[in-house]
Amino acid sequence: MATSPPDGAWPVAEPPPDRQPPTAARIVEVVVAGVLWVGLALGSLLVGALAPLTAMASDGCGGSSDDGALICRPEGSLLFFGGLALLWVLLLVAVLFSAFRIVRAATTGRPVWPWPFVGLGIALLGLVLMILDLAIITR
Length: 139
Prior knowledge:
The chain is mostly helical. The protein has one domain. Helix 2 runs antiparallel to helix 3. The longest helix has 35 residues. It is elongated, with a radius of gyration of 23 Å. It starts with 23 loop residues before the first helix and ends with a helix.
């Protein structure tokens, strides 16, 4: 049984309440989100490029103090490169997902500012997982 909305309940001429008109504040929001995204992309590139240098954690292999470390065993390198690959994948997902969501939010009139921070959260998750991986394989 279909009912019609009461008069004036859903005016056709007004946009939905979650959409924002293109005001100066909206333009600033989109520009700031773009700048934050560029920072996320550059930071992810830097972290991704420097992450392979953490392989130097295995420099002590063969010494008396690190003989029991997992990274000194053959399966340790597999765990190291698996953690490195996971970091790279999460950094890539963070950058691409936040870029897609920023563009999507900007074109639909929804808030843009949260998406660079969501990307940052995903990137930080990858970094924390890589640090935990290193902590496990080097003890």
